[in-house]
């Protein structure tokens, strides 16, 4: 029998496992395919890093975003694994060819689903012995979700072609229907895969929401919160330009150091702001939801949503980025009635209209030309008729609107927010702590500054004195031995 | 980079300039037309200087500059600086300083060099603290391998001391604390994450694009210094950064053209198995890029044709068009017209 705790100490700096990690590893070592639902910050990377380190086998990780993959490669290198590589569409042909030719040198291989099914890539991957096949962000397989990626649906077939390697599917939140869907799409029948599902509830996060009369009031409320809340924070937006505008506004009107952070930035900028945030050189990042999927900052004290999240699952994931250190933390959702139209507009934009669909079905060679048509192409290629496709997208739209309504119901609820959130995951609140739960049990909005003084201020945060003198900076950068 | 700042820097108060062509010159889109406008606007020595950057949309940028009353426009996205625009240009030029170093950026991939250097500095900074747990930057597969190889080959060479002394001396030699500060903020390393151009801009009052251009200039300067230092342990970081001044194919055409055989364009097309129009484009590229004395204009333009063209040009106000000349000289080909313009432009520059 393998001594997992001993291995943990040998291969990482962690003192103990987080909830669920050990159970997942035991399943894997027993040769069981596993679906793991571990909350954000639950240490998903460690699972396959440790499995690879102990067994010396090759690990293939399917991951949805380039930026996320780069963060993960960085994280794995940070954790001490050097033979890591990511195959992404951002690489040029020469670079990709060189990596594919040398694939056997790498123990951890990250790849996007689109790259993996690519005919110029797959044969190289298929030549390798894969000890563990990891599907990260496995909820992307769900057709009704906003993160749906059609190539995730091919992973079941890919797994067969790879000779059915041991498989680990991971996601941060998944309702029961989502979990069933993931297993079914991956080609597992009931009993063929184990499930390790950790509670979604994060007791150290206080939940609150506020309805503002209009955008002006929302901005004033945000400014006031940012001025007075202590510690690091993330503010989520649904558009890059808004993230930038509000970051500029907050920089101007508060004494906090605020930066925008989103997918439109280049690698260098992203890296720098990420590092500054990790090092507490900046207090707050204004981010789009793509941000932070791979960031691992322990002491984020609050998450504010300036725009509506896509759905309850995304909301739970996004607020999960605060309080990883288990210290008291705060989730705030700010809302003004126009926000729902913005969100509706986003839904309209991501779901093709019948007219476009009809045009593309008549001119299928156009489907190749735009990546935005990938989902349509998938249905076309799998033989769905025009009428079927229309109905599928219609359903998806209805589903997205229902999800939006669920979020709005969460905002306007007159009961316990935690209870309502957890209902979506078939969980109930145990050991209710009405003193630190949500703004239903007390007049939070009348006393949020006291809340801050009581819960957030106490958490020690080391503010480093930043040098602005270049001689000093050079001396600190390079430690010289005399 | 902000295209608006670049348009101001490359604009002129007297001449309407083509916004599209200027952007194409800066990002180095190599067509004869872009090269020609680069020559016309005296921007040829910056051809491709910003090829690593995305510059934004020209129409939206010009619209914004018009609203700000910095430029006036003519049809086809031609723009000219207003007096306010000219003042702003002057202010930006003053904060940018001399642009000679930017010509190094045309000849060498300085952005790539800076990424290698910044990554190497991070590795050495953490190494000097014996720290192996940190988030490395991502600079691409090949350069990643290069830095690994470089580190293994050189780690016995007191690299922390070397980096410290190199940068201390280099930054002192700038004689400007402002520039030295801008430079160090491009680095990252042990418990130091540097700053973005926006952050530096906020602190210094400079335009963020000027900060980026200063970085380019500073890294070009550092590159040249290391390039001349035969003993530097950073030699590997300087490899494979040359950029050819002419495209490979155009160079081959030009070599045949000036070879002892004195092949004419038709013969070159036949020898190389390419289209005559392609050969003519190659020759135009060479005529633009080569110094005037190096390109035998006389072999392609007879003196009688030159006289006719000069005569026609003097009668036209504003931008002289091929159609004007063709109406006057029916046998004229566009190739000859363009070549003549290049020659005239080069003669003018030497006055
Ligand atoms: Zn509650």
TrEMBL record, chain A:
UniProt cross-references to CDD domains, sorted A to Z: DEXHc_RecQ
PANTHER family for this protein: ATP-DEPENDENT DNA HELICASE RECS-RELATED, DNA HELICASE RECQ FAMILY MEMBER
Protein name (Swiss-Prot/TrEMBL): ATP-dependent DNA helicase RecQ
InterPro entries: DEAD/DEAH_box_helicase_dom (IPR011545), DNA/RNA_helicase_DEAH_CS (IPR002464), DNA_helicase_ATP-dep_RecQ (IPR004589), Helicase_ATP-bd (IPR014001), Helicase_C-like (IPR001650), P-loop_NTPase (IPR027417), RecQ_Zn-bd (IPR032284)
Recorded superkingdom: Bacteria
Domain Helicase C-terminal: 221-368
Listed SUPFAM superfamilies: P-loop containing nucleoside triphosphate hydrolases
Origin species: Lentilactobacillus kisonensis DSM 19906 = JCM 15041
The keyword Heme is annotated on this UniProt entry: no
One GO CC term on file: cytoplasm
UniProt keyword annotation of 4Fe-4S present: no
GO biological process: DNA recombination; DNA repair
Keywords assigned: ATP-binding, DNA-binding, Helicase, Hydrolase, Nucleotide-binding
Pfam family of the protein (one): RecQ_Zn_bind
GO molecular function: 3'-5' DNA helicase activity; ATP binding; DNA binding; four-way junction helicase activity; hydrolase activity
Domain Helicase ATP-binding: 25-192
Automatic annotation (TrEMBL), chain B:
Organism expressing this protein natively: Lentilactobacillus kisonensis F0435
Residue span(s) of domain Helicase Helix-turn-helix: 249-341
InterPro entries documented for this protein: Helicase_HTH
Domain of life: Bacteria
A matching Pfam family: HTH_40
Protein name per Swiss-Prot or TrEMBL: Helicase Helix-turn-helix domain-containing protein
């Amino acid at each position: 029998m393998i001594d997992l705790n001993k291995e943990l100490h040998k291969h990482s700096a962690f003192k103990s496992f987080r909830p669920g990690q050990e159970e997942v590893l035991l399943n894997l070592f027993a040769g069981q395919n596993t679906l793991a639902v571990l909350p954000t910050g639950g240490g998903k990377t460690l699972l396959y890093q440790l499995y690879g380190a102990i067994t010396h086998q090759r690990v293939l990780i399917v991951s949805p975003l380039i930026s996320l993959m780069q963060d993960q490669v960085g994280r794995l290198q940070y954790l001490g694994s050097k033979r890591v590589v990511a195959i992404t569409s951002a690489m040029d042909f020469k670079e990709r060819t060189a990596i594919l030719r040398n694939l056997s040198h790498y123990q951890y291989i990250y790849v996007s689903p689109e790259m993996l099914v690519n005919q110029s890539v797959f044969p190289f991957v298929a030549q390798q012995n894969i000890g563990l096949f990891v599907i990260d962000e496995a909820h992307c397989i769900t057709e009704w979700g906003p993160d749906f990626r059609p190539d995730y649906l091919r992973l079941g077939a890919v797994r067969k072609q790879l000779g059915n390697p041991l498989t680990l599917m991971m996601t941060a939140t998944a309702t029961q229907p989502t979990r069933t869907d993931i297993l079914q799409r991956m080609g597992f029948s009931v009993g063929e895969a184990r499930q390790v599902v950790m509670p979604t509830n994060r007791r150290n996060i206080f939940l609150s929401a506020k309805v503002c009369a209009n955008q002006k009031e929302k901005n004033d409320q945000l400014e006031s919160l940012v001025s007075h809340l202590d510690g690091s924070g993330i503010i989520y937006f649904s558009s890059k330009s808004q993230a930038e505008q509000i970051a500029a506004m907050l920089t101007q009107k508060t004494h906090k150091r605020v930066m925008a952070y989103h997918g439109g930035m280049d690698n260098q900028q992203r890296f720098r702001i990420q590092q500054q945030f990790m090092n507490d050189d900046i207090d707050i990042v204004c981010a789009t939801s793509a941000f932070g999927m791979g960031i691992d900052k322990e002491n984020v004290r609050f998450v504010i949503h300036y725009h509506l999240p896509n759905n309850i699952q995304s909301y739970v994931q996004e607020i999960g980025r605060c309080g990883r250190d288990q210290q008291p933390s705060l989730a705030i959702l700010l809302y003004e009635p126009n926000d729902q139209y913005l969100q509706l507009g986003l839904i309209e934009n991501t779901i093709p209209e019948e007219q476009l669909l009809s045009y593309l079905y008549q001119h299928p060679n156009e489907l190749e030309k735009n990546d935005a048509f990938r989902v349509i192409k998938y249905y076309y290629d799998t033989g769905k008729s025009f009428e079927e496709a229309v109905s599928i997208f219609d359903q998806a739209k209805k589903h997205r609107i229902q999800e939006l309504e669920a979020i709005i119901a969460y905002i306007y609820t007159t009961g316990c927010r935690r209870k309502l959130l957890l209902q979506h995951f078939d969980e109930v609140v145990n050991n209710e702590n009405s003193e630190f739960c949500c703004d239903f049990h007390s007049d939070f909005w009348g006393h949020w500054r006291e809340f801050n003084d009581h819960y957030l201020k106490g958490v020690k945060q080391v503010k480093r004195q930043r040098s602005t003198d270049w001689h000093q900076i050079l001396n600190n950068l390079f430690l010289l031995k005399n | 980079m902000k295209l608006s700042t670049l348009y101001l820097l490359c604009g002129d108060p007297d001449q309407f300039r083509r916004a599209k062509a200027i952007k194409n010159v800066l990002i180095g889109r190599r067509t004869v037309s872009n090269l020609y406008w680069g020559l016309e606007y005296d921007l040829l020595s910056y051809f491709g200087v910003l090829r690593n950057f995305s510059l934004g949309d020209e129409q939206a940028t010009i619209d914004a500059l018009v609203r700000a009353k910095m430029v006036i426009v003519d049809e086809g996205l031609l723009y000219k600086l207003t007096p306010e625009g000219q003042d702003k240009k002057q202010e930006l030029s003053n904060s940018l300083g001399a642009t000679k170093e930017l010509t190094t950026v045309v000849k060498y991939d300085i952005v790539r060099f800076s990424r290698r250097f910044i990554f190497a500095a991070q590795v050495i900074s953490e190494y000097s603290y014996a720290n192996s747990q940190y988030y490395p930057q991502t600079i691409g597969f090949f350069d990643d391998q290069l830095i690994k190889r470089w580190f293994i080959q050189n780690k016995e060479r007191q690299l922390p001391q070397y980096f410290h002394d190199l940068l201390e001396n280099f930054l002192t030699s700038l004689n400007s604390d402002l520039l030295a500060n801008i430079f160090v903020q491009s680095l990252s390393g042990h418990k130091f994450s540097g700053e973005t151009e926006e952050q530096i801009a906020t602190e210094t009052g400079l335009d963020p694009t000027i900060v980026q251009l200063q970085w380019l200039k500073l890294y070009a300067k550092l590159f040249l210094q290391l390039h001349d230092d035969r003993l530097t342990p950073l030699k590997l970081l300087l490899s494979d950064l040359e950029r050819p001044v002419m495209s490979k194919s155009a160079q081959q055409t030009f070599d045949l053209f000036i070879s002892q055989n004195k092949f004419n364009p038709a013969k070159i097309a036949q020898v190389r198995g390419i289209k005559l129009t392609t050969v003519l484009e190659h020759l135009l590229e060479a005529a633009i890029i080569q110094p005037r004395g190096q390109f035998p204009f006389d072999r392609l333009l007879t003196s009688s044709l030159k006289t006719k063209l000069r005569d026609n040009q003097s009668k036209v106000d504003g931008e002289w068009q091929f159609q004007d000349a063709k109406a006057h000289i029916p046998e004229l080909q566009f190739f000859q017209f363009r070549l003549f313009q290049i020659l005239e432009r080069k003669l003018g520059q030497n006055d």
